[in-house]
């Protein structure tokens, strides 16, 4: 029988698309292709509507521009942030591809600080802190991009995802340990239903305790539907 996920599970709200205003669609398309963004689609619907979508390398969020997609002034979007692991390498790659990238800088006091004059200070963050070293560039219309060097994420800043065998093994071991408590107090059931619900919750930001509660509630829903 069909089952539904518990309504208490975290809803996925992934940032998918940012719309940027451009004055010349073909020029913008050529620029983003040249700097290495992936072209996802180019749709000419009619003479009033032309939609182009690009995705930065390895990004889960995309950009859309075109004709008839926004009333914002071309070049008015500032502070689009691209996280990079090595800002020197990213900067060199973009320059090779034709982008005019600023020298590396850090902000006065705190990242993204624009509350004072002369907020950009030349050079890397003097303490070498993650999140604190930047470079910038613009597209042909002046929409502004920032490269932000992120070498280590702060605690709680990453969704738990299965990216390799060792990570999967670790997460499966954790799942087995928490499932053991459920198994001790419940009758025969499909362990894979509990595992799947727990793993899904963990990969979408739940703590082990929250994921356990989600999986328990999911199993109640499974048994409730099956009993009908």
Shape: extended
> What is the ordering of alpha helices and beta strands?
EHEEEEHEEEEHHH
Which structural category fits the helices and strands? alpha/beta
Helix count, DSSP H or I runs of 4 or more residues: 5
Task: Tell me what you see in this structure.
The structure is a single chain. The protein is an alpha/beta fold. It has two domains: 17-149, Roll (2,3-Dihydroxybiphenyl 1,2-Dioxygenase, domain 1), CATH 3.10.180; 165-226. It has helices at 25-34, 87-96, 165-185, 191-203, 208-226; strands at 17-19, 38-46, 49-55, 62-67, 80-84, 105-107, 120-122, 134-138, 144-149. It has a four-stranded mixed sheet with strand order 1-4-3-2, with helices on one face. Strand 2 (38-46) and strand 3 form a beta hairpin. It is extended and about 65 Å long. Mean pLDDT is 87; it is low at 1-7.
């Amino acid at each position: 029988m069909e089952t539904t996920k518990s309504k208490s599970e975290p809803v996925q709200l992934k940032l998918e698309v940012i719309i940027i205003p451009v004055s010349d669609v073909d020029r913008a398309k050529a620029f983003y292709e040249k700097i290495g963004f992936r072209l996802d689609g180019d749709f000419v619907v009619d003479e009033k509507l032309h939609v182009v979508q690009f995705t930065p390398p390895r990004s889960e969020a995309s950009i859309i521009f075109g004709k008839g997609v926004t009333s914002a002034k071309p070049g008015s979007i500032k502070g689009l942030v691209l996280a990079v692991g090595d800002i020197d390498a990213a900067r060199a790659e973009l320059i090779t591809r034709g982008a005019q990238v600023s020298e590396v800088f850090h902000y006065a006091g705190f990242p993204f600080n624009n509350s004072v004059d002369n907020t950009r200070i030349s050079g890397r963050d003097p303490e070498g802190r993650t999140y604190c070293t930047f470079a910038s560039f613009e597209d042909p219309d002046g929409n502004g991009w920032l490269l932000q060097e992120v070498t280590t994420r702060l605690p709680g800043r990453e969704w738990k995802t299965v990216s390799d065998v060792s990570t999967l093994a670790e997460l499966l071991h954790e799942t087995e340990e928490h499932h053991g408590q459920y198994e001790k107090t419940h009758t025969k059931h499909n362990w894979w239903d509990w595992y799947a619900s727990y793993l899904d919750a963990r990969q979408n930001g739940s703590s082990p305790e929250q994921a356990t509660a989600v999986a328990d509630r999911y199993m109640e829903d499974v048994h409730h539907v099956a009993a009908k």
